[in-house]
Description:
Layout (H helix, E strand, L loop, with lengths): L2 E7 L7 H12 L3 E7 L5 H10 L4 E4 L13 E2 L1 H6 L4 E5 L2 E5 L2 H11 L8 E5 L3 H12 L4 E6 L2 H13 L3 E6 L12 E4 L22 E4 L8 H8 L3 E3 L1 H17 L5 H10 L2
Helix pairs in contact: 1-9, 4-5, 4-8, 8-9
Amino acid sequence: MSKSFAVIGDPIDHSLSPNIHSAAFRELGLDSSYIAYRIPKGELEEGIEGLKKIKINGFNITIPHKIEMMKYLDKIDESCSLIGAVNTVANNDGILKGYNTDMDGFLEPFKKKGLNIAGDKVLLIGAGGAARAIVAGFAKEKARSTTIANRTIENATNLSNFAKTVGLDATPIHITDVGNTAKNYDIIVNATSIGLKNESSVISLEGINEKTVVYDIVYMPMNTDFIRKAKKQKATIIYGYEMLLGQAARAFEIWHGVEAPYNAMKKSLLGGF
């Protein structure tokens, strides 16, 4: 039986997911296809109906539908209810079950590199969509504390309150108050889209060293200014593409029930850069 999958969102033409999943299908000889399907804001309900009609087996959700999609699910797994957003759906005979692979995708590179998070002090830049899943991940892995730096202090405060509900000590600060404190943290994460258009890093990485883990969730370009500055300080780097791969591998496993061919997916992704 041939299976079909998709990624939905708007804009969607830059999505790397079709390449990654197609490479996995080829590697394992699966009779499956994966397409990018543009659904503009405000047209989600009709879009989902259309996907159900063609009996799609599963789909990924990207901006701007990750929160609104929650309304159209029949079942949700705990990652989904905790984060309040969905990015992966499995369709079982018209019953839609939602998952959020952001948290597992974010944590995967730490596991692959054998980096421990327990007891670490974290500086998180940004309080948007991805940041919530990241906070949940740090809580799960028992980080000691998180400082949430954001341009809008209100959003940082809301995220800090969420952090406390999942058992993570958190302090909201304005991005300009980071100053030269980067060296006081074990892990520094950019969870904003800054770097996407080659903007320079919003914080100074003065004084960090090879023990500092610096993680940028932006994956295009691969070497953002933030990553380049971290490399100059000899920090341990985690690239955005590693999170993207972690998410894709988790989605693959949800849909197919077998281990994702990580290296084939990685090769296809890096070939796409």
